[in-house]
Q: What sequence folds into this?
């Protein structure tokens, strides 16, 4: 069956966009309330209030909420339960400049953007009337709206389901995924309370063209994984008038960035699909004010996508790059110093620097060997108290602060690089089609796409890895529990500010697919979603997939 859902999904989307729900602001709470109001107006939840929950996130520095709704089918007595998921938080709007007060107004925004002369492609899409503009519409309030519509539909037609559906509208996907992680607790509780059997998860995050002439619409099985390898670099300070008397940590960090940034050798391949290479997200020293002394230490971190690599694989690769960077800097410095001595008439002697690279695990264990339990107890308490006193501290900043504190215990203070992970771990999920649940999900999606294709004027194509970070990473794992020990052992924040919820994820552990919104320019001022595909085609692919899985 093909649902006539365009107008209703459009209306819900517009209502959600108009609620400014920038991540880590009170808008997240307000958007959750808006979604809750929608569900509260449905007769189904008036009769079954226990199936609707506005859940405050746990271990969070601000007050914000998820909204979780369940509809139980009456066609049979199956325990099978399908999860629908999507986030309603957005990135900020500073990029909108003088028109940022209208960033959440899809009615006014197109004409304002047209006046900015943002290019022929944008103007063409405005004039076409096929796109809806507004921060968060594409990424991904329209996906949440589609699921809200489907919950409403099935609440009115539970006889179509031999099983159950749960829709999770999550906050905080754009930062540290407090929303998805907190949802896991409810999923565990409902699994036990209602004897549910989770079979699959459908996310509705956005997709976009791969190039200017790409007209395909995309559905993705599985998801990319993401880690944030980070580098703390200590140098040897010196006066700028004696520049060769020290070792500038900024130079080492710059060389690490040169070797890491957009390096295709660090791409990960699986199933014929290749990840985007790493890219720098932060590079800085620790000087607060101007002085003519070189920096004592610096740090950097890099986005690192994976399809098949484990945390151990990533750590080994980035350690190789750190060693190479240190070697290169020493060679460069000696070459430069020798040349300087030649042109200045000075006597050249080889500089004293030696390559020293540790993983956090190696560095921690070295200090523990030297200082014993005194160090282990101290650094544990330091991290714990740092989190208690500064709960809102950014996870990346928290991690480097712990490393910096540990460095004070080093006996050998000669320059070194310490490598660690410093952000929320987003697990890769690889769909090989080998497990029965994977086969069932993939065949249901393929059949649904084939049916909906007749209603779409563009090809709908499947790929094997969703290419952006998403909350699907918390619905299952392709890495083994043992392989994640390397992650744990190399995260300075582990056990104090961060723990990856492995046990909770394994309580769900389902195959995932992204049947999401389609548009252009996510996270840009020109963010826009294609209305016909998103409101109608996408929603019908999801509807028919649900029907096939829970028939």
A:
């Amino acid at each position: 069956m093909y649902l006539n859902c365009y107008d209703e999904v459009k209306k819900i989307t517009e209502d959600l966009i108009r609620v400014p729900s920038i991540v880590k602001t009170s808008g997240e709470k307000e958007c959750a309330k808006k979604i809750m109001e929608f569900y509260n107006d449905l007769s189904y939840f008036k009769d079954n209030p226990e199936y609707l929950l506005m859940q405050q996130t746990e271990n969070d520095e601000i007050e914000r909420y998820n909204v979780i709704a369940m509809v139980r089918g009456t066609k049979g007595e199956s325990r099978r339960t399908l999860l629908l998921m999507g986030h309603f938080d957005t990135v900020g709007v500073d990029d909108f400049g003088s028109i940022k007060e209208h960033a959440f107004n899809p009615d006014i925004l197109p004409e304002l953007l047209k006046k900015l002369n943002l290019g022929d492609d944008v103007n063409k899409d405005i004039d076409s009337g096929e796109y809806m503009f507004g921060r968060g519409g594409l990424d991904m309030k329209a996906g949440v709206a589609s699921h809200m519509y489907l919950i409403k539909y099935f609440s009115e037609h539970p006889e179509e389901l031999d099983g159950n559906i749960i829709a999770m509208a999550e906050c905080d996907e754009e930062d540290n995924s407090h929303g998805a992680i907190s949802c896991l607790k409810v999923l565990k509780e409902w699994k036990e309370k209602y004897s549910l059997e989770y079979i699959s998860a459908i996310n509705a995050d956005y997709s976009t063209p791969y190039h200017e002439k790409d007209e395909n619409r995309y559905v993705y099985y599985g998801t990319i994984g993401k880690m944030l390898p980070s580098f703390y670099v200590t140098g040897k300070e010196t006066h700028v008038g004696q520049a060769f008397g020290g070792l500038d940590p900024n130079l080492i960090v710059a060389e690490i960035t040169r070797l890491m940034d957009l390096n295709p050798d660090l791409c990960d391949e699986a199933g014929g699909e290749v990840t985007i290479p790493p890219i720098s997200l932060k590079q800085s020293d620790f000087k607060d004010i101007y002085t003519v002394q070189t920096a004592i230490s610096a740090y950097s971190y890099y986005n690192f996508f994976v399809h098949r690599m484990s945390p151990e694989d990533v750590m080994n690769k980035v350690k190789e790059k750190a060693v190479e960077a240190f070697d290169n800097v020493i060679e460069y410095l000696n070459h430069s110093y020798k040349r300087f001595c030649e042109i200045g008439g000075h006597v050249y002697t080889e500089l004293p620097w030696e390559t020293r690279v540790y993983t956090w695990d190696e560095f921690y264990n070295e200090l523990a060997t030297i200082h014993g339990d005194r160090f282990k107890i101290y650094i544990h308490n330091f991290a714990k108290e740092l989190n208690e006193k500064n709960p809102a501290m950014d996870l990346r900043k928290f991690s480097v602060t712990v490393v910096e504190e540990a460095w004070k215990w080093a006996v050998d203070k000669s320059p070194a690089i310490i490598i660690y992970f410093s952000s929320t771990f987003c697990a890769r999920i690889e769909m090989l089609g080998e497990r029965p649940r994977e086969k069932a999900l993939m065949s249901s999606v393929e059949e649904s796409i084939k049916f909906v294709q007749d209603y779409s004027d563009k090809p709908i194509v499947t790929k094997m890895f969703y290419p952006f970070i998403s909350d699907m990473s918390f619905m299952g794992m392709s890495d083994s529990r043992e392989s994640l020990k390397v992650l744990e052992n190399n995260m300075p924040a582990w056990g104090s500010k961060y723990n990856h919820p492995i046990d909770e994820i394994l309580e769900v552990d389902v195959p995932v697919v992204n049947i999401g919104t389609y548009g252009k320019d996510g996270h840009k001022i020109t963010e826009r979603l294609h209305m016909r595909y998103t409101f109608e085609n996408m929603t019908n692919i999801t509807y028919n997939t649900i029907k096939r899985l829970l028939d």
